[in-house]
């Protein structure tokens, strides 16, 4: 089976991290975001992944592909747009790569969503319903910033609801039409490609509404957690959900425990943690990080190579690669430090600061 991951967005909402790294390669749970998806695709039997990119292909992306093609024994290729083609145009551009002689459906994924990826169940669901296109949906409190799906019938039970057909699809609705939203994971028959022209096209605004009107669009309710991690606050919420999922499903493997560790904490084995620290809940510490003595960390990510000096406190924030937080400094309140940023001793950064302030020039 084949899959395409839409990785062409500019990642502006995740600046300043995305000044140094393309969004799909920003670490989440100590590995690049898209690696979570590529591994899930492999587990579901996908052998070939196409990465749909639209900007200049950075060296770092090429290196990632080379490394993981080998490690995962999968074919990973690029399909590069000369101008942004939106969320459907890239499928038309990669048409030849997606069509399989056996006529099998293929997966399409947004690159910035995190969940349990029940892709095998999705394949079954797609076949059982004879769908032309299946999308994963999930419930959220504020549906207005997503694509909203209205089911054909208000089913009586959750079980029946899972089998409902999509009546209509409304991208970022201005008025409330429902709370079930597009989770950014699709399984499409090759015939969907015949509906897409090679121009800038939105799959959400132009393609899904049409398929729904022909009663060929189905929605599978995603079990478990889901989050679009394309902006800092949601990234940290997604991290909390992900760590909680690991606690329930693979606790010993990735989470650490011991003196001074509270709740769910993931730390790379090469990270060094000093004495009398208080770490957690909901913290991820990357490879080669140094957490000096007396440090307090909670609800935060400290990425590869960063150093948090004595008695500093980092909460609800992201510390980018190779950055330093000085002794007795405080970084809080959804602050995002980019790569190689240095917070002086005793400095307080307590609100979402403008990217240019924390990005080293
Ligand atoms: N190749 C390519 N070219 N990819 C693109 C382009 C483009 O021109 N524009 C966007 N993308 C990619 C992004 O990198 C991302 O992976 C995906 O398409 C969706 O774009 P976002 O910018 O993240 O969209 P969104 O979060 O506002 O909304 C989308 O995701 C929601 C779920 O997270 C929509 O699909 C919504 O319907 C959905 O609910
Ligand atoms: Mg998004």
From TrEMBL:
GO terms for molecular function: GTP binding; mannose-1-phosphate guanylyltransferase (GTP) activity. The keyword Hydrolase does not apply. Keywords: GTP-binding, Nucleotide-binding, Nucleotidyltransferase, Transferase. It is an enzyme of class 2 (transferase). InterPro entries: GMPPB_C, GMPPB_N, Mannose-1P_guanyltransferase, NTP_transferase_dom, Nucleotide-diphossugar_trans. Pathway: Nucleotide-sugar biosynthesis; GDP-alpha-D-mannose biosynthesis; GDP-alpha-D-mannose from alpha-D-mannose 1-phosphate (GTP route): step 1/1. Residues 261-351 form the Mannose-1-phosphate guanyltransferase C-terminal domain. Residues 2-243 form the Nucleotidyl transferase domain. It comes from the Eukaryota. Its EC number is 2.7.7.13. SUPFAM superfamilies: Nucleotide-diphospho-sugar transferases. Belongs to the transferase hexapeptide repeat family. This is mannose-1-phosphate guanylyltransferase.
């Amino acid at each position: 089976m084949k899959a395409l991951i839409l990785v062409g967005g500019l990642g502006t909402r995740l600046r300043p991290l995305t000044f140094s790294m393309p969004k799909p390669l920003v670490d989440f749970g100590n590995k690049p975001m898209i690696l979570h998806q590529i591994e899930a695709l492999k587990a579901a039997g996908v052998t070939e992944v196409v990465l749909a990119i639209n900007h200049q292909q950075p060296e770092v992306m090429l290196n990632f592909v080379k490394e993981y093609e080998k490690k995962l024994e999968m074919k990973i290729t690029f399909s590069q747009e000369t101008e942004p083609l939106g969320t459907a145009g890239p499928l038309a551009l990669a048409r030849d790569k997606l069509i399989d002689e056996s006529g099998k459906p293929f997966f399409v994924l947004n690159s910035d969503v995190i969940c349990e990826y029940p892709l095998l169940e999705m394949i079954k669901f797609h076949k059982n319903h004879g769908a032309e296109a299946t999308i994963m949906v999930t419930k959220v409190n504020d549906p207005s910033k997503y694509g909203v799906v209205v089911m054909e019938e208000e089913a009586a039970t959750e079980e029946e609801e899972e089998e409902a057909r999509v009546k209509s699809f409304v991208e970022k609705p201005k008025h409330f039409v429902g709370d079930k939203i597009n989770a950014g994971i699709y399984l499409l028959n090759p015939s969907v490609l015949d509906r897409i022209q090679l121009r800038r096209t939105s799959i959400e605004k132009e393609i899904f509404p049409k398929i729904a009107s022909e009663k060929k669009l189905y929605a599978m309710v995603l079990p478990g957690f889901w989050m679009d991690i394309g902006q800092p606050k949601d990234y940290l919420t997604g991290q909390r959900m992900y760590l909680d999922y690991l606690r329930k499903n693979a606790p010993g493997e990735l989470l650490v425990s011991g003196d001074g560790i509270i709740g769910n904490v993931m730390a790379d084995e090469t990270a060094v943690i000093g004495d009398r620290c208080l770490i957690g809940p909901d913290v991820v510490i990357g490879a080669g990080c140094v957490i000096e003595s007396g440090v307090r960390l909670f609800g935060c990510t400290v990425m590869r190579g960063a150093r948090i000096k004595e008695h500093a406190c980092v909460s609800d924030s992201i510390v980018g690669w190779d950055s330093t937080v000085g002794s007795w400094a405080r970084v809080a309140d959804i602050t995002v430090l980019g790569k190689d940023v240095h917070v002086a001793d005793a400095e307080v950064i307590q609100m979402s600061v403008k990217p240019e302030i924390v990005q080293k020039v």
